[in-house]
Amino acid sequence: MNNLINHDEIHKWNHSLRELLYDGKPEEVLKQYHNRQPRLFDLSVQIYMIILNMYSKGGYFDLAEKILSDLIASLPISTNPHHIDPTAFSILITGYNLHRQPEKTLITFDRVQYPDAISYLFSFQACSQLKDLQQGKRLINKLAQLNIDLRKQFKL
Fold first, then answer.
1. Gyration radius (Cα) of the chain, Å
2. For 24, left (φ over 0), alpha (ψ -120 to 50), or beta?
3. Which of 18, 20, 39, 83 would staple 25 via disulfide (CB 3.0–4.6 Å)?
4. Contact assessment for residue 127 and residue 139, using Cβ atoms and an 8 Å cutoff
5. What is the mean pLDDT of each run of 10 residues along the chain (156 residues)?
6. To the nearest 5 percent, what fractions of the chain are helix, strand and coil?
């Protein structure tokens, strides 16, 4: 017998949490998350991202880091965790940037193996806030090394 919750139940649960979020009830979303059935969350990366986003935007970074760790731990061993890292780390970087924590923005950026364009954007902004020209140059070199053109990413 399969102990995992079926796809329809997960879809309903995801929808329910999104509705709570749209209705301005983030506390209820977090309550449901913390009272969850562990087997459900092992299947729902989307919910991890929603919770990570809420904690990051709210400035609850210890909890956001815990969610990120849970997310990576929930991935099947056969899954390359770097497939999820850019988006999840970008959410965390966005939160640090929103709360004017440029040092943590850059520390988090350094943890990402394949950063996305948003992560670069906020990291450059952090360098500017810190007036850290050397770090900015390092980011430019990394972009060149990976052959990433941010103008194309942002259609500049």
1. 17
2. left
3. 20
4. yes
5. 56 75 76 64 68 88 88 69 73 94 94 84 93 93 82 66
6. 75, 0, 25
